[in-house]
Amino acid sequence: MAAMATLVLAGTLTACTPGDGGNGDNGDANCTNTIPKTDLPVVTMWAWYPNMELVVDNFNEQNDEVQVCWTNAGAGGDAYDKFQTAISAGNGAPDVVMLEADRIPTFQAQEALVDLTELGYQDVKDDFSEGAWKDVSVGDGIFGAPVDGGPMGMIYRKDIFEQYGITPPTTWAEYEAAAQQVKDAGGPLFGDLGANVPAVMMALQYQNGAEPFEYDAASPENIGITLNDDASKEVLDYWAGLVSKGLVGTQDQFTPEYISGVIGGQYATYISAAWAPGYLQGAGVGEGADAGVWATAPLPQWDPSNPVSVNWGGSAFSVTAQAKDPELAAKVAFGVYADDASLKDGWENQIIFPLNLKVLDDPAFQDYEVPFFDGQQANKEVYVPAANAYTGMTYTPIGQYYYSSLTEQIAAINDGSVSGAEAADAVQHDVVAYATEQGYTVE
Fold first, then answer.
1. Over the stretch 295-313, which tens digit does the pLDDT of each residue have?
2. Phi, psi values for residue 438, rounded to 5°
3. CA-to-CA distance for 140 and 144, rounded, in angstroms?
């Protein structure tokens, strides 16, 4: 999500002053937006969705209780660095901050976020699935208002599949067989194992039954780490085998070189999420010679008798511990990207894949003929079923270190220096040592 947002964000910031009664001392005193009702209290917000100005304007026009002063504090890491600085300083944070779901435990562990369980969660609980809530939870606490997610599927080139007589594989065994068939016929790589997208590997291991972490804020000193179980090793060995046989590439994703390969037909598939069409279009994919050749299918399964849906990415709005009025800030977090007009703009323009069940159940959304997929009803066929079946993941405060360690080992797989099983053992040893060093009791 952060990479996608970085590619498609545009525009410069213009300033206005929050109305009297606002929290002008929280975060940047300047707003990107104009506040229409200056007599109302103001909640400050940092967020990077590309259509955020429209979303905030919609909220402010419709709300007679509170107004939002929105600032684009940067996407992903830039925003997190600024937020961390404000946490360390004890001031300067906004009332509401946009966070990717896997980042929430990192800030919750620093007591920088407010539990929303008693601040409006019950009013909107039925608007989202079990999996959506689990991703923004730490133990029994709710530390974010879900907005968008990344149910995963397999994007593929129809022209390449047709040329080599391939139908969308439904299992990973079929995926490898199709990849071998294309290679034997002199065709392109079937996919890519990018070391810089460890969240994909984590998701595929979850899909195979792995449970990498156990963590509960009620016992914050304890953490369960299981990164080299049989399920995790099987997935890493599988992808290591695809690499060693020359069936998939090893290019880092979200790079000009990778995008050039995607546009040039160097890859038959792209294992990604529902937000990928927006990212790809923002990078120039789907234009010119490769226009109209893209389709999507359900993610292949490890065990077709036990299908599992997984997720890559997704963001939420969290209330910070520095909020002057947490209850008012929670109203913004739960309501600012929840009106019909904002949600429709988000999904029609492929900015977000909404998790709000009012959208997922809407025939207009399900039947939408996605332009990037040449009119395919991708939501109905792939992404809505995946989102509905997704049950969530367990994230931890050490998630970013885990991603770093996994990235290093995937790179080692790609250069042939370790097997998948060896990589899993190395990640387990590395992450356990780090967690212990940080003062956790590892279970």
1. 999 999 999 999 999 999 9
2. -80, -5
3. 12
